[in-house]
Amino acid sequence: MTSKPVGKPKSANFEITIRPMRKSDLPFVHNGVCETNWQDIPSTLKKYAKRDECDKRIIEEFNAFLKTRNYKFKVFVAIHHKTPVGFISFGELKNHITGLPGGSLLDFWVEPEYRKLGIGTKLFNYAAEKLLERGYTHWGVMVSPSNKASLHLLEKRGFSKGYLSMYRELD
């Protein structure tokens, strides 16, 4: 069980540590993964989905990724006063058209009480640095067009729009 943050810091100049995820971080990371993935489900599909079933599937998929070595799946957690406040996960995916390997931002989440304090920027910069160290020249991410906050953050970080998935109900 993770502890809840003890109130929002008053300044963006507070210290955080970014480290690899530990087993004790799993409940926090599972919660963030469920939140980010639920937000990204298109409304045309969400009305048919059950939140608890979706969360269970997401956690199972996430745990399976953690055990996959060839995927190079990594999760890093931002810690403030021994408490997880955010995380970023990334790995490698080949571009399905060019076949070129690239970094892939898989999940990203900051505890709501700690948003707009620079934690996301620190996590992004950390992930980009790690991907550069591994020789990647680019990275990508899949995000729902309805997730305006994520789109804004990604565009601010230099990401540009690429592929778009579209959904429609069948009559």
Summarize the structure.
The chain is α+β, with helices and mostly antiparallel strands and 171 residues long. The protein has five helices and five strands, in the order βαααβββαβα. The chain has a single domain, classed as Gcn5-related N-acetyltransferase (GNAT) (Aminopeptidase, 3-Layer(aba) Sandwich).
Q: What would CATH call the class?
A: Alpha Beta
The residue ranges in which pLDDT falls below 50 over 5 or more consecutive positions are 1-5
The succession of helices and strands, N to C, reads EHHHEEEHEH
Q: Report the total helices.
A: 5
Global geometry: globular
Supply the CATH superfamily name. Answer: Gcn5-related N-acetyltransferase (GNAT)
Q: Approximately how much helix is present in the residues?
A: 25-40%
Distance between the termini: 44 Å
CATH topology value: Aminopeptidase
Oligomer: single chain
CATH architecture: 3-Layer(aba) Sandwich
- Rg for CA atoms: 16 Å
Q: Largest sheet at a glance?
A: 5 strands, mixed
Number of strands: 5
* Percent strand: 15-25%
Strand order of the biggest β-sheet: 1-2-3-4-5
The number of distinct structural domains comes to: 1
- Class by alpha and beta content: alpha+beta
Round the mean pLDDT to the nearest integer and report it: 84
